[in-house]
Design goal:
341 residues; 74% helix; mainly alpha; 15 helices
């Protein structure tokens, strides 16, 4: 088991190393001077330029430049944004909670909808219920997320006027920034009557959350359905039936738990899908998160922001995938037995 964990950690370190190499290379591959690309400082005197070039070791070998780049990364120095001239890491920390908040809500919706429907479809396989759930899941999975988001806006915002089109909150409410998670910031604010603010915030959350949760939910339904069918065909389920256990008892005691375990390593796939969809959803609904921030950086050719977003977001996704793999090994005795020979 220890050897397996060391292999996972080695894979994580190797992947992060290759990712850091790619991020470092972008500083030289982007158009313009590497000093400006790495630091984001544009209005420099000759003395300041020479000093920064010396600090970045740009006159030395690429290996020394990479070592200096890693030192800057570990110290949290990602340079300045071209557009705002503020520290990129500060902008990232300020914006990331908005993306995390939307992703968490979408993940909760995915679990609450995907797991029960997948379980129901697997238990009732080849029945009318299974065919309806499977067909609806296949149709929803085939709809592009950007088209789905625009369809929701057209129906629920423009035609029915039930929900707002974009943003996180009505401009009439000025909520002080504390944690970056809107519902928490509302709770700790000094407003006396917070219920209308909560209502407005939730109304702004509904369409982005449903749009973002659609694709992961369809994937989770398919995974859960397949796992339930495999478990239902196993010998110990047949033995439980011969003992006279009802379908409810079989599902509660045996099927649900054993069908959930194989989904744990697939959580990385769901998370990657969620993160990718988050960036598209933020653009559609003008949600002020990482995706919206990155798109603006691409339009404005803000190279330090692009470089930092690539490194931090990709590292986060890689760490989540490795952790999901390790957790699956720890909770699944069959996998541990296979690893231990």
């Amino acid at each position: 088991m220890l050897i397996y964990l060391l292999k996972r950690c080695n894979l994580l370190i190797t992947t992060l190393f290759l990712l850091s190499l790619l991020s470092f290379s972008l500083g030289h591959l982007f158009p313009g001077d590497p000093v400006i690309n790495f630091t984001g400082q544009q209005s420099l005197t000759y003395e300041e330029y020479a000093q920064l070039r010396s600090e970045l070791s740009l006159d030395d070998s690429y290996f020394m430049q990479y070592v200096v780049y890693l030192e800057r990364v570990f110290s949290g120095d990602f340079g300045l944004s071209f557009t705002t001239q503020s520290e990129v890491i500060r902008d990232f920390v300020r914006i990331f909670p908005a993306s995390a908040e939307l992703s968490i809500y979408a993940l909760v919706v995915t679990m609450l909808v995907g797991l029960p429907l997948g379980l129901w479809a697997g238990v009732k396989r080849n029945s009318l219920v299974d065919k309806i759930i499977f067909s609806a899941s296949a149709i929803a999975n085939s709809i592009p997320i950007f088209w789905l988001g625009l369809l929701f806006i057209l129906v629920f915002s423009l035609n029915l006027a039930w929900l707002p089109i974009s943003g996180r909150l009505n401009l009439l409410y000025d909520i002080p920034y504390v944690s970056g998670i809107l519902l928490i910031d509302i709770a700790v604010s000094d407003f006396d009557n917070k219920w209308p603010i909560y209502q407005d915030a939730i109304r702004h959350l509904i369409l982005p959350t449903i749009t973002l949760a659609t694709l992961p939910t369809t994937l989770l339904i398919g995974m859960m359905r397949a796992n339930v069918i495999n478990v239902m065909d196993s010998q110990y389920i047949k033995a439980a039936r011969t003992k006279g256990l009802s379908l409810y008892q079989i599902v509660r005691r045996h099927v649900l738990r054993n069908a959930l375990i194989p989904i744990i390593p697939q959580f990385g796939l769901l998370f990657n899908t969620l993160m990718t969809s988050t960036m598209i959803t933020e653009i559609i609904f003008s949600w002020p998160g990482i995706g919206h921030w990155l798109l603006e950086a691409i339009y404005q050719r803000d190279y330090p922001v692009i470089q930092t977003s690539l490194l931090l977001v990709s590292s986060f996704m890689i760490v989540i995938n490795v952790l999901a793999d390790i957790i699956h090994t720890l909770v699944n005795p069959l996998v541990r037995k296979e690893i231990n020979g």
